[in-house]
From TrEMBL, chains A, B:
GO terms for biological process: acetate metabolic process; acetyl-CoA metabolic process. This is Succinyl-CoA:acetate CoA-transferase. Residues 8-221 form the Acetyl-CoA hydrolase/transferase N-terminal domain. Residues 334-468 form the Acetyl-CoA hydrolase/transferase C-terminal domain. The keyword Magnesium does not apply. The keyword Transferase applies.
Amino acid sequence: MSDRIANEALRQKVMSADDAASLIHDGAQIGFGGFTGSGYPKEFPPALAKRIKAAHEKGEHFTVNAFTGASTAPELDGELAGVDGIGLRSPYQSDPVMRAKINDGTSYYADIHLSQFGMQIRQGFFGNLDFAVIEATKITADGNVIPTSSVGNNAVYVEKADKIIIEVNDWQSEDLEGMHDIYYGFALPPNRVPIPITHPGDRIGETYLRVPQNKVVAIIETHDPDRNSPFKPIDEDSHKIAGYLLDFYANEVEHGRMPKNLLPLQSGVGNIPNAVLDGLLHSDLDHLTSYTEVIQDGMVDLIDAGKVDVASATAFSLSPDYAHKMNENAAFYRNHIILRPQEISNHPEVIRRLGVLGANGMIEADIYGNVNSTHVMGSRMMNGVGGSGDFTRNAFISAFVSPSTAKGGKISAIVPMVSHVDHTEHDTMVIITEQGIADLRGLAPRQRAPKIIDNCAHPDYRAALHDYYDRALRDCKFKQTPHLLDEAYAFHRRFLETGTMQA
Amino acid sequence: MSDRIANEALRQKVMSADDAASLIHDGAQIGFGGFTGSGYPKEFPPALAKRIKAAHEKGEHFTVNAFTGASTAPELDGELAGVDGIGLRSPYQSDPVMRAKINDGTSYYADIHLSQFGMQIRQGFFGNLDFAVIEATKITADGNVIPTSSVGNNAVYVEKADKIIIEVNDWQSEDLEGMHDIYYGFALPPNRVPIPITHPGDRIGETYLRVPQNKVVAIIETHDPDRNSPFKPIDEDSHKIAGYLLDFYANEVEHGRMPKNLLPLQSGVGNIPNAVLDGLLHSDLDHLTSYTEVIQDGMVDLIDAGKVDVASATAFSLSPDYAHKMNENAAFYRNHIILRPQEISNHPEVIRRLGVLGANGMIEADIYGNVNSTHVMGSRMMNGVGGSGDFTRNAFISAFVSPSTAKGGKISAIVPMVSHVDHTEHDTMVIITEQGIADLRGLAPRQRAPKIIDNCAHPDYRAALHDYYDRALRDCKFKQTPHLLDEAYAFHRRFLETGTMQA
């Protein structure tokens, strides 16, 4: 047995994933570890999927409600969704199989702000939590549990669940111990207190999860890597978008609205955020900090280069090479990286206090600055709102970034009216595409529309957008936010009918 | 001269409103006091309007950008808008003349969360503030300024403006001194610190505004009442809605999800909030608290009855009788009421920490729980988002309340898709109409739709809503949030064409 389980009592609970899966009942509510493909349980979910499939073959009803930190991996969402095993999913997902089952109506999906899900579990709004299933890198002799490459909602799940299942994964570095900061100051109102973070590097909790031993029903030993996907090389559009954002920051510094070393950066996952981090790497900025959800490759480069002093997040999202580097050098990186519960990494109170610089991707924005982050053509769920609302509503600067078109130009990211709203006109400060940047601060809707169309829309769509706006302005009796309700979705309807938004 | 101006140096600056208005230039950015028709300057704005009108008659350009706490009164918004004197208005208004000028395109209107406007002024996002024009009940010998019936953004305006004009109004009670709590702990990031409020009754600031004397350019003596409008008697629908809300709270208490004396109440302005307060008055609850924007009559009754220990707000919105009572008994009420800057009364950090019970009005909600608080038929601005976003996103319970129909049944408050989104599906927990209540916590969109239609829509509209939802569910290929984009606004388009949403 692995020497990573140092507690005697807990060593007695080691069993196979199949045996652990046999403990689960139809309708169980399970809080899984896992955030952006890191630190999720890897062998229990496939075993549970096998059990569910067998039940279905016997004609029995068997689904579970699956809660996580955020997105997981094929071994979790893919396996469970693949056997039609998920009744309700929350708060975030990005797996192709899970997404298909949500969109074909097999599974329900409650799309919740990532800072709020754990809080709502604490408040009892999702009912009783039957199981917590989490991953650990080791269990100390005292029975303390050291998390792995994500913290997510592990702490609240362990606290609230009736029963706990732990996967101890020796692929994860033991040197991660000391990187985590598990805050235990949560209370329910009227007893909540201020969260004592005033700098991204502040540590306010413990380096381990408190796990009541009497609730632990199974421990599974695993040896499997996280879902680490290689990053694509940064494309030209992403470089352009990153350039506009960094120029905007530089201009804010020049006008005295921001300190020289900026403010704590929020950095999403993907090509554009990676290009921003790359841009920072090649800038003359230093003593940067980050307060964000996820540590990706570019942030590791910035730490290596001595440009980022400290980065606070709740999870890694690394390529295989960088995950290897992290595992080899965790003892170094834990001096510069803090992994926190997502209730803290995404907490409005802290984001607003620190003055985080938010930059989030989007599916589409409309000419007045409303943003759709979740639904293609208004109905089809992509991933979920994630932390974009937590950061956007509370950031010092709230920017949205996207290429101006998708599907080879057939979809415009700037539309007359978004087909779903995740971020309102009240929250969007800046929109950036490879075409340019629209600074919307202090502007009314009629001031925003021409700016967004001219600066951000692709030239192929500008005339149609101007035409819509001009006629709305002329024909609409009320001109705060001129819209023609019979045409507001003409772009989307054309795409659904003809496969392109272009006329 | 009034003995309310005890400071010698400032007594030298007393002048007429006309003389003060002559100090203002075209294009000036002015931060006015005033919140829900309380504590706004009363004689300066009409004098400024006269000056602007005279300039216009001479063919000169003259507008000002008018910022406030929230809504003001005919003397301010009405007068200035009436002479086409406002270029940009922010962050909230409700005056009929102002509203008309926004909707006919004369004035721009930037509709900003009430907690954020002062912060954005501090951050420099609205440019330089030329003037602060505020109301005081008195000025002490030391030159400290005691606010009146609202605090709003007075502190930030006085701090950031180049020049300050003060109206000293002897209609306001001198006993208001001690009721205000002006927080001076604001800083810009990276130097922001936790706001040290853990109970609605906590006092964290000073009882007066710090006013740099060298910036004061005029003092005007006034004697005018606030815009206090009588409340209408509570109608039956409001009683019903209040009943559903209070039953919901009682059920939460019963299930252990809320303390017996509830959590701090947010209470909007108007008929339904008044009915809720009336319901509380006739309940057996006590030791209630409130953390809200506005103190209205019902809250005063609850304090008189000994049921509310303390109410925190940023302004009064009282009927004439209750305003009289407040002025007569301010020395008593200041033991139970705290008036704070709206940056604090509406701060997400404090609202989330305290676990405020939010209940806000709406124009319409859709079958998936998105809420429109601002735009009639998608284009016509009513008042603004106000504090509804601050409270809804951060409250322990986020409820929206409205009669199920408006305009004698011609408008349904429940529609297939809202024509403007101020609060997203991610934020709405409960919807209540006189028809009933839909508890949406933990539900996916397809679980919400039937519940909202059956529980909240008026019977006259239920069949049409079900028909839309059933066909969307059947015909839409992607079923997370089924919508038919060519029909989503059929209700609204019918109203615009025929004057009723009914087929």
